[in-house]
Design a protein that fits this description.
- By secondary structure, this protein is of the alpha/beta class.
- It contains three helices and 13 strands.
- The strands form three sheets. A seven-stranded mixed beta sheet has the order 1-2-3-4-5-6-7. Strands 8-9-10-13 form a four-stranded mixed beta sheet, with no helix packed on it.
- A hairpin with a 7-residue loop joins strand 8 and strand 9.
- Helix 2 runs antiparallel to helix 3.
- The relative contact order is 0.15.
């Protein structure tokens, strides 16, 4: 899927070391798309990055990695790789991408910055990422597993053939046992606490 034409007009600091920006994505009917950046000892890591207004680009340190949780989250990855020289990491098993990732990642991959891969069974060629800050806060970057309609509850995606509900519930159960507090999804309002409880509730529906 091509890079969105819409650019985010602000970056929100969720935590001193965790950044978030969002757009109404014209490629998916104006539904929200979300991106994140986490500051680590190895530099700034971008997760499913979307385009930013030029005035917001730069100034937050060296970008050391660009991570895609799904093969269809290419978004601004290739342009940023050319501009910043940062490698692109994509889930193992992806195919048909616009350009070749620098590295395919699975749970055995040693990622920079302390990021870790959790395999996804609810999707094909996808993964989840976790990060634990030195202060102990655990963050889940869960890609498309969790969505959020305006004014509605957190939910699983509904695209038939793209998401397997049984596999998604199993993913939620596996993730809910990890020491995670913050939930960062690719199409949902970030959740700064109660990540595990929210996953447990989804797994029971």
């Amino acid at each position: 899927m091509a890079e969105p034409k819409t650019r985010a007009t602000r970056i929100e600091r969720l935590l001193p070391w965790l950044w978030h920006w969002t757009i109404a994505d014209e490629r998916i009917g104006g539904f929200r798309s979300d991106s994140f950046a986490v500051e680590t000892a190895d530099g700034l890591m971008l997760i499913d990055p979307l385009p930013l207004e030029e005035t917001l680009q730069g100034g937050r340190g060296k970008v050391s990695g660009i991570f895609l949780t799904h093969g269809n989250h290419q978004r601004s990855a290739w342009r940023l790789r050319r501009n910043l020289g940062a490698p692109v990491y994509a889930p193992a098993g992806v195919a048909g991408m616009d350009e070749e990732p620098d590295l395919l990642m699975d749970e055995q991959t040693d990622l920079p910055g302390g990021l870790q891969v959790v395999p996804a069974t609810g999707f094909q060629a996808a993964c989840y990422l976790t990060f634990t800050h030195a202060a102990g806060t655990g963050v889940l970057f869960c890609g498309d597993l969790v969505c959020h309609d305006p004014g509605g509850p957190y939910r699983f995606p509904v695209q038939e053939g793209y998401f397997d509900p049984a596999g998604g519930k199993e993913d939620a159960r596996r993730l809910a046992v990890l020491p995670l507090t913050v939930m960062c999804a690719a199409h949902a309002v970030p959740k700064l606490d109660g990540c595990r409880e929210m996953l447990q509730e989804l797994a029971q529906d």
